[in-house]
């Protein structure tokens, strides 16, 4: 019997767990109480995570689409990789290097994310690379960079929640998305702290709150401006902090001036009394030297004004003098398993490893030196995730797409349109562990290892770099993503070294990140094992890592936070006669992201999509619980059973996004800064 300390394959908490193996067959999940992030607790997704092990759903052989029958058939690895390489060469000869696009994922390990960026820029020479993390927390990343000069989801350990006096959760349902994290809220409340939840739905997280505000979807920005207005009017701005640690606050002060409470109520639907009560709670807390923490998640961020929404909440915390104080400040609760690390190592269209900008000549020189290629050979900035997919098969767009760790047929906004773009490709290659909806469309499917079968690092929502360790060998016929990338690079006669050893790749990644904002230079696998993870930045072997940022300075040139004045623009689509309600989307406890893995695990209920609506709306359309109802938007329709609940606003319907359907409805309007699509709100009609 062997026991391997590792981490859950799913969300950004990256809970520690022990995998116990007897012989070759059985693999069981046990608690790992010593790992500090979850102290042995797991949600049901974590407890059942080994459910895909030995499943007939696992892909164990490469597949290529037969030209005559149009069906996928098994192939050898040599045949599959030779085919990909030769098609890549001919497409690039005909259309140029950018004829090939690469799409990565926020669930890939740091090593894979790093190697994928290098594969694109060095072996393929294409600028066209981005990843599904663009649809996760990119608005918070953009706001963090603007305000603090750096983008780390939480600039403090998650357990700091317990040090706060008031925690405001904006658009976060962590009781369902990361249940072990709720113990921090429970401990905070046990010692007299106050939890505020802001959400269009009374979620299980809202049930644990002391204060619950239920705004119209897409109006969180106006709500933050209204709170700022009241904080300023009450004289609760921490003027000494603002003077010493920020710039630009006068403009921000003015930005809230017109957001008097009655106007905020008209826009957000939050009653004036509730708004005033929350503002006075925040002010009282600050006057009594208390600490206020604001945490946003996708509910606040997945909007065409997502970046500005986050900036508005950051401005509020700066007005209260919070960022940099133990137990106070602003943080983003990232979503995907490697939502943090996945965006640090070069998968993004505009970035090289270490969060370096791809158009910065010094950054290009540094990374090119590590990669052993001339800086001039590196391509420039590519398209963001949705724009990349939208351009496929079009003039100037790529003709082939290589997908690693993503299921865009389910997860992309305006998914029917995206699927039609995939159909227009000359070549679609998908590396995955199961036949996802996207893999089913591919010309070549490459079966790759899953988490328990490989080693690699992830960076959790706190910026803590952790190590997933191999507990079992992969099934025969399966290769790691690193082996797939190395196989492609060698067939393309690429410059540079493409190692298949994860620890070796991590060493290279650490060198590439050295001196960058996300500096891993002092982190090694041995340190991660012995220290229960290491927080970046960690620039040298003798550096302890950095659990808390901003205590004395922000990461801006002058060390001060930037207060960026923003204005509420509203959602790209608002209800009208034809589409009279708001549609919002989200997650349920027992499923994860596009469901490619979790829907195939027997112990996790696979309910299929459903439509949550208020009894008043159900009455209006004549629907009862369990009836099939149709939700329609300007982009498509979904028919699913109704769940009639009084926990949702009467003007809003909710559909979970783990199944095909929800994202056929969602809006592809993009945030101008982060290029985040507006997943969280659009105008819809609902009928029986
Ligand atoms: Fe922990 Fe998230 Fe895995 Fe649940 S899904 S066990 S909260 S890492």
From TrEMBL:
Transmembrane segments: none
Domain of life: Bacteria
GO cellular component, one term: membrane
GO molecular function, one term: 4 iron, 4 sulfur cluster binding
SUPFAM superfamilies named among the record's database cross-references: ADC-like, Formate dehydrogenase/DMSO reductase, domains 1-3
Alphabetized SMART domains for the sequence: Molybdop_Fe4S4 (SM00926)
Species assigned in the record: Nocardioides psychrotolerans
Domain 4Fe-4S Mo/W bis-MGD-type residues, every copy: 1-57
Coiled coil segments of this chain: none
Record's protein name: Assimilatory nitrate reductase catalytic subunit
Signal peptide location: none
GO biological process entries: respiratory electron transport chain
One Pfam short name: Molybdop_Fe4S4
InterPro entries in UniProt: Asp_de-COase-like_dom_sf, MoPterin_dinucl-bd_dom, Mopterin_OxRdtase, Mopterin_OxRdtase_4Fe-4S_dom, Prok_molybdopt-oxidoreductase
Keywords: 4Fe-4S, Iron, Iron-sulfur, Metal-binding
């Amino acid at each position: 019997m062997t026991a391997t300390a590792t981490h859950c394959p799913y969300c950004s908490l990256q809970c520690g767990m022990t995998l116990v193996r007897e012989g070759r067959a059985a693999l069981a999940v046990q608690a790992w109480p010593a790992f500090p992030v979850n102290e042995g607790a797991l949600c049901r997704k974590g407890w059942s995570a080994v459910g895909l092990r030995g499943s007939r759903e696992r892909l164990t052989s490469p597949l290529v689409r037969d030209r005559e029958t149009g069906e996928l058939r098994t192939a050898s690895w040599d045949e599959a990789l030779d085919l990909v390489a030769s098609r890549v060469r001919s497409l690039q000869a005909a259309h140029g290097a950018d004829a090939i696009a690469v799409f990565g994922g926020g669930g890939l390990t740091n090593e894979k994310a790093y190697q994928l960026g290098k594969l694109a820029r060095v072996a393929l020479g294409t600028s066209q690379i981005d990843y599904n993390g663009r649809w996760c927390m990119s608005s918070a990343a953009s706001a963090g960079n603007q305000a603090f000069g750096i983008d780390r989801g939480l600039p403090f350990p998650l357990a700091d929640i317990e040090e706060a006096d008031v925690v405001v959760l904006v658009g976060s349902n962590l009781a369902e998305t990361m249940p072990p994290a709720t113990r921090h809220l429970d401990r905070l409340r046990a010692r007299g702290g106050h939890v505020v939840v802001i959400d269009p739905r009374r979620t299980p997280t809202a049930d644990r709150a002391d204060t619950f505000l239920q705004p119209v979807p897409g109006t969180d920005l106006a709500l933050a401006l209204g709170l700022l207005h009241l904080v300023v009017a009450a004289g609760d701005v921490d003027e000494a902090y603002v003077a010493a640690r920020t710039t630009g606050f006068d403009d921000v002060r003015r930005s809230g001036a017109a957001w008097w409470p009655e106007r905020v109520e008209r826009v957000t639907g939050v009653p004036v009394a509730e708004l005033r009560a929350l503002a006075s709670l925040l002010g009282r807390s600050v006057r009594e030297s208390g600490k206020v923490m604001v945490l946003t998640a996708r509910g606040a961020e997945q909007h065409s004004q997502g970046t500005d929404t986050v900036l508005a909440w950051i401005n509020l915390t700066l007005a209260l003098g919070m960022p940099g104080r133990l137990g106070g400040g602003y943080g983003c609760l990232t979503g995907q398993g490697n939502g943090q690390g996945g965006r640090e190592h070069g998968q993004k269209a505009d970035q090289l490893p270490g969060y370096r900008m791809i158009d910065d000549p010094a950054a290009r020189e540094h990374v090119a030196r590590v990669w052993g290629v001339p800086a001039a050979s590196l391509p420039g900035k590519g398209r963001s995730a949705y724009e990349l997919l939208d351009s496929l098969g079009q003039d100037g767009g790529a003709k082939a797409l290589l997908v690693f760790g993503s299921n865009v047929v389910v997860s992309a906004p305006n998914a029917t349109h995206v699927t039609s773009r995939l159909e227009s490709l000359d070549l679609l290659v998908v590396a995955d562990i199961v036949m996802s909806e996207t893999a089913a469309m591919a010309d070549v499917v490459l079966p790759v290892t899953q988490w328990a079968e490989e080693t690699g690092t992830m960076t959790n929502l706190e910026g803590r770099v952790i190590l997933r360790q191999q507990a079992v060998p992969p099934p025969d016929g399966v290769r790691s993503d690193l082996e797939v990338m190395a196989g492609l690079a060698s067939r393309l006669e690429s410059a540079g070294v493409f190692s298949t050893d994860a620890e070796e790749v991590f060493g290279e990644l650490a060198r590439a990140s050295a001196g960058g904002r996300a500096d891993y230079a002092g982190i090694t696998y041995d340190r991660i094992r012995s220290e229960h993870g290491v927080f970046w930045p960690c620039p040298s072997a003798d550096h302890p890592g950095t659990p808390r940022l901003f205590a004395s300075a922000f990461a801006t040139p002058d060390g001060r936070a930037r207060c960026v004045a923003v204005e509420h623009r509203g959602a790209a689509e608002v209800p009208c006669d034809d589409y009279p309600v708001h549609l919002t989307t989200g997650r349920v406890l027992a499923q994860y992201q596009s469901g490619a893995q979790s829907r195939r695990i027997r112990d996790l209920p696979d309910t299929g999509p459903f439509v949550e609506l208020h009894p008043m709306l159900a009455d209006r359309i004549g629907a009862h619980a369990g009836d099939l109802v149709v939700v329609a938007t300007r982009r498509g329709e979904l028919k699913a059973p109704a769940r009639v609940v009084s926990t949702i606003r009467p003007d809003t319907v909710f559909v979970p996004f783990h199944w095909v359907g929800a994202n056929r409805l969602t809006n592809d309007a993009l945030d101008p800064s982060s290029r985040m699509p507006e997943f969280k709100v659009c105008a819809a009609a609902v009928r029986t």
